[in-house]
Amino acid sequence: MARIINEPSRTFGEYLLLPNLTTKDCIVENVDLSTPICRFKKGEEPDLKLNIPFSSAIMQSVSDNNMAIALAKNGGISFIYGSQSIESEAEMVRKVKKYKAGFVISDSNLTPENTLSDVLDLKQRSGHSTMAITEDGTPTGKLLGIVTSRDYRTTRDPLDKKVKEFMTPAKSLIVGHEGISLTEANNIIWEHKLNSLPIVDDNFNLVYMVFRKDYSEDKENPRSLLDSQKRYIVGAGINSRDYKERVPALVEAGVDIVCIDSSEGFSEWQSDTIKWIKDTYGSKVKVGAGNVVEREGFRYLADAGADFVKIGIGGGSICITREQKGIGRGQASAVLDVAAARDEYFEETGIYVPICSDGGIVLDYHITLALAMGADFVMLGRYFAGFDESPTAKIKYGNGYVKEYWGEGSNRARNWARYDLGGKAGLQFEEGVDSYVPYAGKLDDGLGSTLHKIKSTFCNCGAKTIKDIQNNGRLCLVSSTSISEGGAHDVILKNQ
Ligand code: RVP
């Protein structure tokens, strides 16, 4: 008979934090949410830390280069989705590493032989009205001109009119030269009343565009997560099949950390993948692994050399793994169990292996609970999918807007590899759904408000660091009747 674990599987909503004494210096401004993301020895510092304990999910509908830049600017990390070709994933990593605040690699490019109809199509798809015209239509080709909506009249110009007939040609353009600072570029934009400034190299190949609207980027966020060369830090998802080709391409592109992306990580394939990475690169290439939901899974991956271990099976908002396969565990129980295993491992070996609570965060305070329960950082999909910076379409829905969000195990993502234990069996059924999430505006604003809430709770619990809340926090279980007491109750709400 299978062993029965009698402890019920619990979720975040079943717990609350109790306040501790708040001392006068325990104010939001003094709360430090920095946290390790890779293993380190007792008494040493980790090679890589986050400035806020947030990572964005390894998903097509969440983490591309734009999300990675927006989140790194705020101190967290994105893991670019691995359910794409090696080349396109590496290209996204490269875009993050090449990104300089305010300097944009042009993603709206055409050739002079394209037509007005192509311009309108591209404008519709990208939402950008400025297009760089290059010899070969690539973002780094020889710059031949620029097209903006001031260059054509849709009411009078024929749709087959060639771009070369109406673009502003390179000889009439003011350009900046590679190496120029953002302040200098902005000065040129202001002096000449431009909307954008192409930056070119010595051979007049396009390198970047600088836009007037990005002027505010001149000021760097003090929380930004940067490497030693002041480039944004970025992660990337990998799988346990093509890692011998994928990891070298990602390393070449400049990735800072990779993570094996699987709904179930307690497997020999993950151990082989970690070992190959460590044998090939030593500790230079950091690798996270998972997902696990209990002590044995954690220890297996920690022993294999994982830099961090990700927790969670079936708790994701778009995930139906538990319904389909009957495996998984409530996210709170999983975090508590794995956190105890992480501490035990540290006691025994003197090696600290950070853990990440992945999926199932519904309310902002669930993040605080996950941290108090022992997580070093969290991974979120639904939360980030709603922001402007996620890669998906914003769609009108009733009186407001929604954004699309689909699981990596859904038919839409067709990332069956993630749900496939190496054989063909995993290809037969879906483990995720295709959905909408409420549109949440700009990431800077939403994340700023979430961070403020987390820090306020830390202060109520007398904690100024994540370790403080883990060591001194007190959690209590809630009864189902006390849950209804926690929301507005027994009043008639206005505006409803
Ligand atoms: P959530 O933040 O609750 O939306 O959960 C995101 C997590 O859900 C991901 O980081 C991943 O672990 C998991 N996921 C992604 N796709 C699927 C699926 O299709 N079942 N699950």
CATH superfamily of the largest domain: Aldolase class I
Number of domains: 2
Number of helical elements: 15
Structural class, from helix and strand content? Answer: alpha/beta
How many DSSP-defined strands? 25
What is the CATH C-level name of the largest domain? Alpha Beta
The N- to C-terminal Cα distance equals 53 Å
Please identify, by name, the CATH architecture of the largest domain. Answer: Alpha-Beta Barrel
Rg over CA atoms, rounded to whole Å, is: 25 Å
> What is the CATH T-level topology of the largest domain?
TIM Barrel
Strand composition percent: 15-25%
Unreliable residue runs: 420-426
How can the largest sheet be summarized?
Answer: 8 strands, parallel, barrel
Strand order of the largest sheet: 5-6-15-16-17-18-20-21
Helix coverage percent:
25-40%
- The general outline is globular
Mean pLDDT: 93
Name the ligand types: ribavirin monophosphate
